[in-house]
Amino acid sequence: MSPEQAGLVVDGIEVRYGGLVAVQGVSLTAPEGRITGLIGPNGAGKTTIFNALSGLVAPFAGSVALFGADIIRLSPAARAQRGLGRTFQRMELFDSLTVFDNVALGREAGLAGRNPLRHLIGRPGDRDAAQQAAQEALRLCGLDDLAGRRAGSLSTGQRRLVELARTVAGDFRILLLDEPSSGLDAAETKRFGEILRRIVTDTGAGILLVEHDMALVMEVCQYLYVIDFGRPIFEGTPSEVAGSDIVRAAYLGTEAVEVA
Ligand SMILES: Nc1ncnc2c1ncn2[C@@H]1O[C@H](COP(=O)(O)OP(=O)(O)OP(=O)(O)O)[C@@H](O)[C@H]1O
Ligand SMILES: [Mg+2]
Description:
- The chain is an alpha/beta fold.
- Helix content is 40%, strand content 23%.
- The chain has helices at 3-6, 46-54, 76-81, 99-112, 116-121, 126-140, 156-169, 186-203, 214-220, 238-242, 245-251, and strands at residues 8-17, 20-30, 35-39, 61-66, 69-70, 84-86, 174-178, 206-210, 223-228, 231-236.
């Protein structure tokens, strides 16, 4: 695999908070066209890794490359402009705006980037591009019927999909999704998984998925990285992970690994 084909390549990153080594020696590859899982018990360091990848915290050591280019010193906005998008563990929608406008904002924010003037005035064509991207993202996420609804009036399941659609509208090549299905019931989670697959198939983008719902992880991911206490403990296909005693032991007493 060439560096460009490899998508997002993380090598040996370490993140410290003061004296606490939160993440150490974590390496992973998240290529386009694949759903890659990053799993581990509560507090294992998953969100910290996402923060390091998206540029919110500076790693103490290690490297992060996107399509062959070192991005470790780039701002979050510059990383986004190069194709790296993310969602946050806590939902952040604008309740008073419609679903459509919430989703279109995903694209406008990406286009405007760091230039504050462009946030205000935009460029001719930006609006059309944002509207088109929003429409396509709504279609992919099965939200066409809700486009005109205020986000504040939606159920948790619908809000999760709007959040996903907003990131999809950003036209990123690699999406980092931090527990995107939390709060969904079993039927909603199943549908959510189908939508993730559709996004990857239809857009060719890659997803790096942090998720506690093991059924969803095992269903949609082609490859998994498992961490515990900030360190890598295992990687492999879902069935290899399911069969791993190391992984089982890490999860023991925390949550069920629902795989036989
Ligand atoms: N800003 C911070 N300052 C200090 N310590 C932090 C900070 N953020 C996270 N930590 C610590 O770093 C470790 C990893 O936390 P992190 O949130 O990355 O885990 P996680 O795998 O995302 O957990 P969860 O599954 O609960 O979301 C934990 O020990 C946490 O307490
Ligand atoms: Mg987290």
